Amino acid sequence: MLLATTVACTRATGTSAPSDSASDRPPASAAPSGGGANPRFVGGVVPLTGAARHHVRAMNWHPGCPVPLSDLRLVRVSYWNFDGDVRQGALVLNRKVGRDVLWVFRRLFRARFPIHRIDLAPRPHPIDWDSTRNLSSSFNCRDATGAPGVLSEHSYGWAVDINPLQNPYVRSDGSVLRAAAKPYRDRSRHRPGMIYDNDVVVRSFARIGWEWGGDWHSLKDYMHFSLTGR
Ligand SMILES: [Zn+2]
Predict the structure, then answer these.
(1) Ligand 1 centre from 60 Cα, in Å?
(2) Kind plus residue range of the DSSP H or E element containing 105
(3) Distance, CA 41 to ligand 1 centroid (Å)?
(4) Distance, CA 216 to ligand 1 centroid (Å)?
(5) What was the pLDDT predicted at 125?
(6) Where in the chain are the domains?
(7) How many C-beta atoms surround the C-beta of residue 22 within 10 A?
């Protein structure tokens, strides 16, 4: 079961992420509102405790993973969904990158970039051709896609996947992992939630020094951003 992220959020302070001055002020209100003309971003970086820690320990982490639970943080963010509603989501990230990624999601919120759902990752599972899951998430101690025995960068808490349905993993032969992602192989047709070269998502992650899987050469992982470029 995924964690319901309706918890109250703290506001972000002291970020070391790139500054965009006046437009980067922390929110003044305590809760987001989808009804107003200009809803505020609400987010923060907090220790991984309680139900979130329990979820990660049960689903995404085991002894032998490269990052101890104590080095993980819960990053709470506001986002716009595809219906134009403001939602709250949570990402689990390495403590080294929590504030940088919070900064990125604040930018995506301001740009009203639509995200289907943000929540903690499910248990690592085999590729399911019929799956229509469309979850944006981060930490998961698991093998890299298509590389058994090689740890994914998600295992370190410094990788994020966004809208995996609209931004599929495309093998070098052009095939995708899920039937539902086939309509999104053609990257020349821009549709909501897709990530493409030099858009607000790519530019924002580039500002914190992260690289995009859509820039890989042999295969493409359009949903994937990471600190290491892997
Ligand atoms: Zn990924």
Answers:
(1) 14
(2) helix 98-110
(3) 24
(4) 13
(5) 85
(6) 41-124+132-226
(7) 6
